[in-house]
Amino acid sequence: MTDTIRSHGAPARGPSAAAAVTTGSANALMRLTDPPMRAVQRLIGASRMPYVFLLPNLVFFGLFVFLPIGINIVFSVTGGTALFPSERPYVGAEHYARLLDCGSYLEAASCREDLFWRGVGNTLTFTVFQMVAMVLFSLVTALVLNRPIRGRGFFRAVYFFPVLLSPVVVALIWKWILQRDGLLNAVLTTAGGEKILFFVDPGWAMFWAVFVSVWAHMGFYTLILLAGLQAIPRDVYEAAEMDGTRPWRVFHRITLPLLWPNLLVVLVLVLIRSVQVFDEVFVLTGGGPGTATMMVVQYIYTTAFANQVQNFGLAGAASVLLGAVLFVLTLIQLFLTRRRAS
Amino acid sequence: MTGKLRHLLLARRGGASWHWTDVASYAYLALGVLLMFGPVLWLALSSFKTPAALLEFPPSLLPMAQSEVSVPGYPQPLPLFRVTMEDGSVRELAQVRRVGIIAQMVDPAAPGQTIRVPADRRTPVRHMALAVENYTDPLTQFDFLRFLRNSLVVTVVATIITLVINSMAAYALSVYEFRGKSLAMLGVIGTLMIPITIVLAPVYLVVTKLGFVDSLWAVILPGAATPTGVFLLRQYMLTIPRDLIEAARMDKASEWRIYARIVMPLSMPALAVLAIFSVMWRWNEFLWPLAVLTKTEVHTLPIALNAFQGELQTQWHYLLAMTVVTLLPVALVFAFLQRFITSGIANTGMK
Q1: Architecture label for domain B64-128
Q2: What is B134-348's CATH topology?
Q3: Pick from A104, B156, B165, B211: most CB atoms within 10 A?
Q4: Which has the higher per-residue pLDDT, B171 or A244?
């Protein structure tokens, strides 16, 4: 969703065959839309036309982004089960107090809203492991793909294609492999091991949640890192080779520092996405066993929509807290992108 | 000949000799192919198995079914087994019935005589069989076509709206200088930070107020204006020569005509990238539809799949086939536009 390497320039201009095909309907559309738009221009003047062009997009942003932020804050300080703010009694910071009321922040069970803190804890665990694994694997893959290998396009596609898959599809593919009588357990028993109930053991469930997310998204980060690697000038390496520099030193002293800006962006992007993780994990484990893989977003979703009593106030307060975290992270990301672009 | 083949298989780019790092690289890539493609291949193979074959453990690699033969004198086709006889010879026999550990069998060639065989001396004769009904049944038994249609409608309509309003906004932000431009840019950047994840309930309220609950519009509209799209298109439109636009103005073309007739056609490559992104986003979208689409009639494919897998007795044979159908359009788009998509993402850093 975010723009990181815009600075590399816009996509190449290709032949616009699609344009030729659509010419007929475009003509008809033009005849239909031009007269009213011309009238509007005559009415307000050409210098005010940009506002007309901006309007539809801004209406959507207003209705579905900015207005909801305001409503969310209202939700978070009002109580009851009503959806419309006017029917909700003001409760002040009660929801925030409830969320933050903890005996010890390190012990979810000591909190009044223990599910929220379990979600926070799980999300933190998930984020840490996911960041390490994601950066490690996408870096190694990018380094390998950057070598002079045959069929690079094919291998790049192999690592990339899961990025396009629906999270539900990804989760179901792995659920099928990991189920009790699934492929992995068949391999394990054939190798002389015991069947493992992966979704009954909290540790395994978290492991597979991280694994499946890395499987699904590493292609995207590999692509970003590969673009960064290919932007490193060849002659730097040639000079190092002439000096007889050892490969590890080349990596340590040339590749890593020159790739560092891209790596940093990848780190922050992974962080932003991990904090919001929901789809794959929810379909894969359902948050279970128990609450072992329940993430913050699942807590918000369940509190607002899936519970018997829909508690928009509590969900709203949790959203505001999550939003604050994301806000800070995105600012960091924008700052890093800016700095790299300049 | 073999020398040539050896050369083809073993030669490296640049003609240098093999180093252990090359071996390691190819080993890593081979493992990658197995890990990335394997699961999808396994899904596809499994989706053609009968429910009985899916219950087998350990599972067979290919979709197999037990062979059957029609034997004169028996109304039903009989399952075929390979039996090791007392004398060590192996015969193919059809099983009439099984009583305890003894199976009563007949030779299809000589159906008159019943042969009694210990049950553990026989193994089923199997052949490859594709359970196509896994695909056809959901079409007739459940509303699978409706979910498919819903997903298509959402994807197509939302993508068209996104392309139109995003390109209009991008045009305004790239071609004009006007008061409030930087504020508008700031607004677009601001929306980058607000994923729908954190405004679920309020957007639900807005959608309710607009009267869109349990209609496909509830999924189409909220995500239609994308900050990503505005950025992507604006970046591209900035590269369009200003002279073209000035020349059109000289010819008394309206601003709308300049947008629709000059800037839009010239932005085709960027529009195509955004269209692909939008199709991906919409076809795969999950959390928001899950929250807002409560009625089954308006479920999109991912929501229907999720509901289906959550049922008490998951019917994996149908679920796997429907997962393949959900995956197929994306796989096809990828197969044809792979280079385009990867270069689009590498150039923009977005997805």
Answers
A1: Roll (2.30)
A2: MetI-like fold (1.10.3720)
A3: B165
A4: B171
